Amino acid sequence: MKNNAPREHTIANHAGPRRKSRISLSLTAALLLLVAFSLTKGSFDLSLSQLWSILNLSASDAQVQTVIWQLRMPRTLLALLIGAMLASTGAVIQGIFRNPLAEPAVIGVSSGAALGAALAIYLLSKLDIQYLYGASSLLIPCAAFVCGLLATALVYQLAQNNNGTSVMMMLLAGIAITAVSGAVISLLSYLADDQTLRQLSSWQMGSLNGASWNQVWLCAVCFAFTLPIFIWRSQHLDTLLLGEAEARYLGINVSALKTQIICLVALLVAVSVASVGIIAFVGLVVPHLVRLMFGVSHRYLIPNCALLGAVLMLAADLIARTILVPIELPVGVLTSILGAPFFILLLLKQRQSLG
């Protein structure tokens, strides 16, 4: 398979360390600004001075403190973490597949994880054991992880040919997995009671409503575990861009690298889906934007994808919950509306590059 990444981003590759540092600092500043906006904007607005008094525990209004610490703070942190997780997984899965169109939602990994989560939700509701030893908080992410991993392995096997990874087969496999998962989830929704139906519908659209501290801690622990491994593997991912044969010649165990990365991607996607449902196109759009600024080196690509992913997810959630107050849009719907045109442009560009 032809690899276009180095050719497409040669200008960014000449960017000096100072320029890259300035861009990273700008992204960090934008992230902090959006965190402040996310905490102060909502059904009622707060000033920055009020927010500061709440954060340092000097505010006397118990109701406002509850809104910040139990509603807005976990939602803001969860949006930040989900955006960072999806964007970084998009960067590494594009590196593993050596394909700019690879993304967990596009190739069916998110749908596979959603199917596992939906099956767990439905079975737990029927068995009525969701409160037994915290079964729901454990079984749902585990089911999402197993099904997401199986979906990833299936896509990888179907997309392989003598020339590497077939773009067409990868997309077709993703479409097939998404279709099957959607059909099964629709069947479960038809059979479910009202409470389970609402939960399944919310997950299909992707929503940060109802974010909790348990979800924040789960995502934070998983991301803190996987991000250093992604960065540690960045040089190997750079070498893999040259081709699998070249990477093996340079001493890299390509099979072990792919297995490790795919398992970690499945873990993060599973945790993301278990927490907020399917959020599409973040893992597709963000790596391309970051490559334009930093080049193709995964050493810069992965951490800055996490930064920009957090920025975009926070911005999308802020728009989703404030643009039509009191109505709140599912953030997954908004990211799909914004990301689908970008995906079409990438397909057209890919077709032109293939002649």
From TrEMBL:
It is a multi-pass membrane protein. It is found in: Cell membrane. Keywords: Cell membrane, Membrane, Transmembrane, Transmembrane helix, Transport. GO terms for biological process: siderophore-iron import into cell. InterPro entries: ABC_BtuC-like (IPR037294), ABC_transptr_permease_BtuC (IPR000522). It comes from the Bacteria. This is Iron ABC transporter permease. CDD domains: TM_ABC_iron-siderophores_like. GO terms for cellular component: plasma membrane. It holds the Pfam family FecCD. It comes from Alginatibacterium sediminis. Gene3D superfamilies: ABC transporter involved in vitamin B12 uptake, BtuC. PANTHER family: ABC TRANSPORTER PERMEASE PROTEIN MJ0876-RELATED, FERRIC ENTEROBACTIN TRANSPORT SYSTEM PERMEASE PROTEIN. GO terms for molecular function: transmembrane transporter activity. The chain crosses the membrane at residues 77-97, 104-125, 131-156, 168-192, 212-232, 261-289, 301-320, 327-348. Belongs to the binding-protein-dependent transport system permease family. FecCD subfamily. Its main location: membrane. Signal peptide: none annotated. SUPFAM superfamilies: ABC transporter involved in vitamin B12 uptake, BtuC. The keyword Calcium does not apply.
